[in-house]
Request: fold
Amino acid sequence: MRVAALLLLATACQQSPAPSPAAASSAAVKASAPAPSAAPAKAWFEGAWQGAFQAELFRIEMPVGGVKAWKQDDGKQASGEGKLSLQAAADGSVDGTATGALGALAVAGRIDGDRAALSLSSPEPNGFHGVILASRTPEGMKGTLSASSADSLQVRQGAVTLTRAAP
Reply:
């Protein structure tokens, strides 16, 4: 029985030769080399966005005093629909344009994590300036626009919805 076990062991050793030092070294290098990595994943916000907003009168109420023009603003001017066209870069920077009830505006800002903070500015001396603060949703982003005329006598606020632009 012992002889049979020794013969079996000797046969097994002959069938699988020990690797040469060069082969062992090559295998070690292959095992330690990093695997080729895939291209980094694109940021969820990167690319073209389109959106809409509905600007409405935002009444500033002060118990005493206040600016008379705020009370006289009936909200008919600079109220209504607007459109946004944005481009978000991989680093989170955003630029674009807005058109509509508030006039032609330049848009600039950042997306950080799941939130966007964008500024609105008009090239017109009495144009509107403001901000959009939005958060990620399953459909895109939703948030609020707050803006005022350059003299701050007209103040507007509204809901903003942003979705991926069609290719």
